[in-house]
Amino acid sequence: MPHLSRRTALRLAAGLTAGSALPLAGCGRGAGPAAATGSAAPVDSSPATGTVAVWAAQGDADVLDKVIAPFKKANPDVRVKFTLIPNAEYYTKLQAAVAAGKGPDVAQFFPESQAQFLDAKTLKPVPDGLVDPDAFFKSLWDAGVADGVAYTVPWYAYTYALVYRADLAKKAGVSAPATWDDMTPFLKALQGAGAGHGLGADIGWDVFNGQDVAMYAWQAGGSLLSSGGKWTLDTPAMADALKYNASFFTSGTADTGGPTFLDAQPYFVSGKTATMITGPWVIGQLDTAAKKTGWTASHVATAPLPAGSAGSVSFSAGGSWGVLAGSGNADAAWKLVRHIAQPSTQIAQYKAYSSLPAVISAWDDPAIKGQPLLDAFFTQLKDTRAFPKVTTWQQVATRMGKEMEAVAKGKETAAKAAANIQAYAESVGTGSE
Question: pTM to 2 decimals?
Answer without folding.
Answer: 0.88
